[in-house]
Design brief:
Largest sheet: 7 strands, mixed
Shape: globular
Distance between the termini: 52 Å
Number of helices: 15
Oligomer: single chain
Strand content: 15-25%
Strand order of the largest sheet: 4-10-9-8-7-5-6
Length: about 400
């Protein structure tokens, strides 16, 4: 058996390419944040995680340029050895202060943050409990650890309590959930989850990759619920509202100190370059100084939810600027995506197994910098294509 045989036999993506309906790895010629260009075709971007629209902010651009001039293009080493800059530590200090935590630790990506943090903390004999809709990086972090993994039905508190109630008091337990779920646009039931963790002696970690910059006036889902002190660890990424690349985890200083010396994805990976760190630091300061950006993107999300529902679309349980259009089968989801793309609106088709079979959807998401005229146009395109595809009447 040739280990590459599975590769030669994989034809699904190539078949879609030949049919002109392949929706992934679309190379953009340029990006203006709220608009992108593909082969001369200009599209309104309604599929980005650039929630605050800061990737094109001149202040952010200048911070990256200045950092390259001072520090060069790469750190050429891990944080553990030669790859830590004063800039990294300044960013960590300001992140911790913003979130009301004692310390923070910056990783090279959000994926590596979850891989390193979870696998460092959950060791042999420990239990990690995950929501079934948790991001793949959380699941993979649990796989890398030596503990036991259990999963509860999405936002089902009875199922979570069933799992926690069966565990011995002296067993180490970590519950990890997304704050704002990236596909459905709904929030974790953090008040109930935090109460169950306290009742059964479990620690709580929240992946707020999509919540920071958006919820809680920009300070995230834990602040939205008033639970920033009850959540033990807050993780996020720089590749969304922070308009950069990287990730971090924040919590009590002894916990962060331990992770710093045990997270393999930190120790054995090069640190983020100065330009990325400077970008994240600058966007953080903008978030703090301009909370109106979070208010704006949430107002846009509220309008989209209201008007799409009125049209007859199924948007699930979204309460955020992530607004899914749930279609429920793969062929129609792909064809709706293609029709929207050809009509000048970029959204993301999400298929099984990324979501459960029968819940295939178009993931739409919005930015604080979208204009009212752009949103008017996008809604009109949704209405026209929705009727054309038989999604609404």
């Amino acid at each position: 058996m040739d280990i590459f045989e599975k590769c030669y036999g994989y034809t699904e993506a190539r078949d879609a390419m030949r049919e002109g309906i392949y929706p992934y790895f679309i190379p953009m010629a340029e990006s203006e944040g709220i608009e992108s260009v593909f082969h001369g075709h200009r599209l309104i971007m309604c599929g980005s995680n650039n929630y605050l629209g800061l990737t094109t902010d001149p202040r952010v651009h200048q911070a990256a340029i200045d950092a390259i001039k001072r520090f060069g293009t790469s750190c050429t080493g891990s944080r553990f050895l030669n790859g830590t800059l004063e800039l990294h530590e300044q960013l960590e200090h300001e992140l911790a202060d913003w979130l009301g935590k004692e310390a923070a630790l910056v990783f090279s990506t959000g994926m590596q943050t979850n891989l390193g943090t979870i696998s460092a903390l959950v060791t042999r004999g420990d239990l990690i409990v995950l929501d079934k809709d948790d991001h793949a990086s959380i699941v993979d972090g649990a796989r890398l650890g030596w503990g036991e993994t259990r999963r509860f039905r999405h936002n089902d508190m009875k199922d979570l309590e069933r799992i926690l109630s069966k565990e011995a008091d002296d067993r180490g337990k970590l519950v990890v959930v997304d704050g704002l779920y990236s596909m459905g646009g709904d929030l974790a039931m953090l008040p109930e989850i935090a109460a169950l963790c306290k009742k059964y002696g479990a620690r709580l970690m929240v992946d707020d990759a999509h919540g920071l910059g958006v919820m809680g006036g920009g300070r995230g889902t834990t602040v939205h619920f008033g639970l920033d002190r009850e959540v033990d660890l807050i993780m996020s990424t720089f590749s969304k509202s922070f308009a950069s690349l990287g990730g971090f985890v924040a919590g009590d200083e002894p916990i962060i100190h331990y992770i710093k010396h045990h997270a393999r994805s930190l120790i054995f990976s090069a640190s983020i370059p100065a330009a990325s760190a400077a970008t994240a630091l600058t966007t953080l300061r903008i978030m703090r100084e301009e909370p109106e950006r979070a208010a704006r993107v949430n107002a846009i999300g509220e309008r989209l939810r209201r008007e799409l529902t009125a049209m007859g679309f199924n948007i699930g349980h979204s309460v955020s600027p992530i607004v899914p259009i749930i279609i429920g089968d793969t062929p129609r989801t792909i064809m709706t995506w293609k029709t929207l793309f050809d009509s000048g609106v970029f959204v993301n088709p999400i298929l099984s197994p990324a979501v459960p079979a029968g819940t295939e959807l178009l993931r739409t998401s919005y930015m604080a910098t979208h204009t009212d005229d752009q949103i008017d146009h996008v809604l009109e395109v949704y209405r026209k294509v929705g009727k054309q595809m038989g999604l609404i009447s």
